[in-house]
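S1.2 Input.
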Amino acid sequence: MKFGTIDRRLLTILLVVFVQMLGASLIFPVLPLYAQREFHLSAELITLLSSSFFAAQFISGPFVGRLSDNYGRIPVLIVSQVGTVISFVLLAFAPSFGWLFFARILDGITGGNIIVAQAYITDITPREKRTESLGYILAAFGLGFMFGPALGGALAAAYGPAVPFLVAAAAVVLLTWHALDETLSAEERRRARARRAGSLTISSLLGGAPWALPLLAVLLIAFLGQFALGLLQSTFALFGEAVLFQGASREVTDVGIGLLLSVVGISQLFTQTYLLRRLARRFSEGQLVVMGSILRMIGMVVYALVTSPWLGAFGSLFFAVGYGLSSPPLQSMSTALVADQDRGSVLGWFQSSINLSTIISTAIAGVIFARGPTMPYWLGAATSALVVLAMVGMMRWMPHQSVRVSKS
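S1.3 Output.
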């Protein structure tokens, strides 16, 4: 990444995403074990805790995207981050497991951070650079994951399970208010609010528009691709305790799981700042999705087969690189199919499709995990293989993906 050639606004929004992700990743390895140890929740209920967040985000996603089109990116982003801060504080002081669910639902309803950040980036990036620029969001994710999970595990081990939530809450909001410039002019926002008939809705998606069928295909592939991640993120802490760190102390388990997730972060950072930029010049977006899905499938198989944390790190490596190669091209494909003034809306729909996948995968992950700790990973490998088949089919069906709606 050559920082001197990158728009200052891009660097700033990536810094905002990094701060947000650092806060979120602090609690990632802690929350499942916090729910299990402090509130004695079963694996089934712990994975439903993950589902509650994504269910709320699934409902709110299209509305958040449309609000950012109508009223600007910055106001929506700030409201979203305030909701995240409140939810982290509620997690730290939750008196019962019901408050855990309430906090996650609140974060999901207001959690448009990534949708708005993606829309912001598409506002300031030309079409031919969009896959690369959207990939930088995952690089910011990766940088947050390099430090957040390990720090969260260390804080929980040293100071107690509530501390990571409070530190995460302290990590978020003022940067957005002071450092970002709005990308949509007042006139663009006025036109977006006036275009109610042309806005992206369920009826327009199903109404036979020339872009509707290819967009639905992209959303379906995104849904399938997200399934493996939902299975992984909802069971990984439990899997680590039951398999990779079986018999280890609580402190070693917390720190070890955090370090394995840091491998995900390092791999994401490498993929987005180095690998994706080079591969995007040589391969089409569809080919990148296929390559990434194959690597993600290999990662899930590694998780399912190994019992050592050192070998488990290879699963983290393959999975993270695969996800990093496949997700930004799909987002870029979706924005290329609609008019510029609907970019926030289509990214809201994209986010809702992966949230729906995460709802289902996290809801069933606990049941599957209870039958066998490695079963979620075999299922994740199978769904990744389905993505490969679906994307190859789409490339043959639509070899030249150039369908766009009018900008009028």
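S1.4 Remarks. The CA atoms of residues 115 and 348 lie 6 Å apart.
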